[in-house]
Design brief:
The complex is a heterodimer.
Chain A: E1 3-7, E2 10-12, E3 18-25, E4 34-39, E5 45-51, E6 58-59, E7 68-73, E8 78-83, E9 92-100, E10 104-108, E11 112-116
Parallel strand pairs in A: 2-11
Antiparallel strand pairs in A: 1-3, 3-8, 4-5, 4-9, 5-6, 7-8, 9-10, 9-11
Chain B: E1 4-5, E2 9-12, E3 18-24, E4 32-37, E5 44-48, E6 52-53, E7 61-66, E8 69-74, E9 83-89, E10 96-97, E11 101-105
Parallel strand pairs in B: 2-11
Antiparallel strand pairs in B: 1-3, 3-8, 4-5, 4-9, 5-6, 7-8, 9-10, 9-11
The chains are: A mainly beta, B mainly beta.
C-alpha cells in the first residue's frame, strides 16, 4: 500500500524558514518523480514543485521560485521542501504527491498545515 | 498558464446522473485528470487521461472529452459522493488545476 506522510508544518513568522518532509513507503521511491502541491484555506490546488528521480532536475512556479527548494533522499525514501522568506500568502496545507500514469498525481499524503503569521 | 474553468457548485439527488464540466483555456490533448476531495481529506485520483478509471475507483465514475472540453460523469450518484471535484491538466507547463466543483446531495 502506497503511503506518504508529511511532517514539519506549523506556525512561522513572515520572512522565516520552514522545512517539510514526506516519507514514502509501499513503492520503489527512487523510480518516481515526486511533487509538492498546496491548498490555501478554502481555496483550490496549486502545484508548488517537482523533482525527478535522482534529484538532478527541479521545477517551480514563479510564485515560489527562488524561495522554495525541493530535494530528495532516495536512501531514506524522503522528499523535502525547504521554504525560505515565507509570506502570508504561503499559508496553506502542503501535500506531497507521487507521479502517476499520464503525468497525474496518483497518491497524496494527508497534508501538513503551514501558517505564516506574526 | 493554462486556465481550467469549472462550475462552482451542483446539487443532485441520490440515484441521479450528474455531469461536471471543465474547460481549458488552450488545448490539453487528452491530458486531463479528475480528483475527488472530501472535507478534511487529501485529493484522490479518479480519472486519468480524460477517460481512464484509476485503480479502485467505482465504475459509476467516467470521464470524456479531448482538446479543451472535458466532463466527469457520476451515474448513479450516491450519498458518499458529496465532495469537491477538481480537474487538472498535465499537457502544458506548469500543471494547473480547476477551481473545483462542489457536489452537494439534495
Amino acid at each position: 500500500e502506497v503511503q506518504l506522510v508529511e511532517t514539519g508544518g506549523g506556525l512561522v513568522q513572515p520572512g522565516r524558514s520552514l522545512k517539510l518532509s514526506c516519507v514514502a513507503s509501499g513503492f520503489t521511491f527512487s523510480s518516481y518523480w515526486m511533487y509538492w502541491i498546496r491548498q490555501a484555506p478554502g481555496k483550490g490546488l496549486e502545484w508548488v514543485s517537482s523533482i525527478n528521480t535522482d534529484g538532478g532536475s527541479t521545477y517551480y512556479p514563479d510564485s515560489v521560485k527562488g524561495r522554495f527548494t525541493i530535494s530528495r533522499d532516495n536512501a531514506e525514501n524522503t522528499v523535502y521542501l525547504q521554504m525560505n522568506s515565507l509570506r502570508s500568502e504561503d499559508t496553506a496545507t502542503y501535500y506531497c504527491a507521487k507521479h502517476g500514469l499520464g503525468a497525474t498525481f496518483d497518491y497524496w499524503g494527508q497534508g501538513v498545515m503551514v501558517t505564516v503569521s506574526s | 498558464d493554462t486556465v481550467l474553468t469549472q462550475s462552482p457548485a451542483l446539487a443532485v439527488s441520490p440515484g441521479e446522473r450528474v455531469s461536471i464540466s471543465c474547460r481549458a483555456s488552450e488545448g490539453v490533448n487528452s491530458y486531463m485528470h479528475w480528483y475527488q476531495q472530501k472535507p478534511g481529506q487529501q485529493p484522490k485520483l479518479l480519472i486519468y487521461k480524460a477517460s481512464n478509471l484509476a485503480s479502485g475507483v467505482p465504475a459509476r465514475f467516467s470521464g470524456s472529452g479531448s482538446g479543451t472540453d472535458f466532463t466527469l460523469t457520476i451515474d448513479p450518484v450516491e450519498a458518499d459522493d458529496t465532495a469537491t471535484y477538481f480537474c487538472q491538466q498535465s499537457w502544458n507547463d506548469p500543471p494547473t488545476f480547476g477551481g473545483g466543483t462542489k457536489l452537494e446531495l439534495k
